[in-house]
Specification:
Layout lengths: L10 E6 L5 H12 L2 E3 L1 H11 L4 H13 L10 H4 L5 H18 L3 E4 L3 H5 L6 E6 L3 H12 L6 H19 L12 E4 H4 L7 H9 L2
Parallel strand pairs: 1-3, 1-4, 2-3, 4-5
């Protein structure tokens, strides 16, 4: 564990390519640093609890967003998702509120839900982007961590990549995945050959604090 006095940054935000192992990395960092880790599902539950949006609505929104074939001209609105046009913005506001409340509770690690969009310029955090070019590792994690069938994994991964880019395009000027947007970009499979091991990546991030 690293005490507060040894950390120049009290918060870590993980943004990632789907299948890069960022969730595994976040949990490993949490154990090593003694910081609470809030993954995508944790933030969804907090957003539902602290807003007037039902948890099922948030989960249905994720499911619908993940099922759409996006292109560069796509816009985030009710027509795209067959939903109330204001709902995506209400959802983003709910996540933003949940993220701010979470950081006020103390040092932590946050993953996705636009945390780097929400906190940029307002909270000092280590902004980390996780990626990998090894599709086999992505598929293995998709199967073993998310329970997706091997034959469905490539299409599912591609959809998640487009979904996340689309989300950022809709709510910010941040170009998701562009190296210059982050403090640290880490290819998770360069340092850890086991798809489910994040030990070396954890050490790299620890040394950056």
């Amino acid at each position: 564990m690293i005490g507060d006095g040894m950390m120049t940054k009290r918060y870590i935000v993980l943004t990632s390519e789907f299948g890069s192992g960022a969730r595994l990395l976040g949990k490993c960092l949490s154990e090593e640093l003694g910081l609470k880790f809030y993954g995508e599902d944790d933030l969804l539950i907090k957003a539902a609890r602290d807003s007037d949006i039902d948890e099922k609505v948030l989960r249905d929104y994720d499911e619908k967003l993940g099922s759409i074939v996006f292109d560069e001209s796509s816009q985030l609105n009710g027509n795209v998702l067959d939903l109330d046009a204001d709902l995506p913005f209400k959802i983003f506001k709910a996540y933003s509120s949940a993220i701010f409340k979470t950081v006020k509770e103390g040092p932590c690690i946050l993953m996705e839900r636009g945390a780097d969009i929400v906190l940029r310029g307002k909270v000092d955090f280590l902004n980390v982007y996780c990626y990998t070019s090894d599709m086999n590792k992505k598929i293995e994690r998709c199967m073993r961590v998310s329970g997706i069938a091997e034959k469905d994994a490539p299409k599912f991964i591609a959809g998640q990549v487009m979904q996340r880019k689309f989300y950022y395009k809709s709510f910010s000027n941040i170009e998701r995945g562009k190296m210059s947007e982050y403090d640290l970009c880490i290819n998770t499979d360069t340092f850890d050959t086991d798809a489910l091991s994040m030990e070396k990546c954890t050490e790299i991030i620890k040394s950056s604090l």
